[in-house]
Amino acid sequence: MTMQTPNNQTDFLTIFFVATVCIISGGLIGAVTNIVNGKISPYYYQAIMHWDFEDIWSAAIAQGILEGLLYGIIFSLIFTITFGLRQIIKLISLVFICWTLGGLLAIFLATLSPDFYKAHFPMTPSDKTEMIKFAWVGGSIWGGMIGGLLSAVIGIVMIKNNWRQGLVV
Predict the structure, then answer these.
(1) Is pLDDT at 13 greater than 60 in this prediction?
(2) Position 3 pLDDT exceeds 50
(3) 55-102: per-residue pLDDT in tens?
(4) Which candidate, 21, 13, 164, 166, places its Cα nearest to that of 92?
(5) How many other C-beta atoms can be found within 10 angstroms of the C-beta atom of residue 106?
(6) What is the per-residue burial (b if ≥16 Cβ within 10 Å, else e) of 122-161?
């Protein structure tokens, strides 16, 4: 398979577009996940972030956007260096899958052994419903972070393989 001759202007615009999509996606992921998490357990943010004010939900969304944009910038740098437009949707999906699995795993652990969970996460509320909500938010955040790391690694591998095959130009 032969590689096409690159067009420098097109390549630059494509890379710029990919970088921009990565950064915006990070902010959107942070917003969406914290819209859900902030509604599920405002107490989580009070306990972990030491927030003692009204409207924790809005602050959680803003925090998610900020952190998401920062992660998006880091991911953008890694991803655009290896370059791959077609893979972005797959990798964003992986972050959301890991976010969901992390939340579900934490709920499972908190339900399976509440005492064990509370011993490892001392700020966990005693009320069973609040404990499950708290577990979801903490687990989903960790899941999302792990998903972001996995996406970066998998993205590099996918692009490297596509580049070798001449599929990325």
Answers:
(1) yes
(2) no
(3) 999 999 999 999 999 999 998 888 777 666 767 888 899 999 999 999
(4) 21
(5) 23
(6) eebbeeeeebbbbbbbbbbbbbbbbbbeebbeebbebbee
Residue 113 clears pLDDT 80, i.e. is over it: yes
Identify the CA nearest to 137 among candidates 164, 107, 117. 107
> Which domain does 126 fall in, by range?
8-164
Task: Tally the domains of the chain.
Answer: 1
Determine, yes or no, domain membership for 1: no
In a domain, 26, yes or no: yes
Q: Residue type for 167, please? A: L
Give me the DSSP letters along 95-153: HHHHHHHHHHHHHHHHHH-HHHHHHHSTT--SSHHHHHHHHHHHHHHHHHHHHHHHHHH
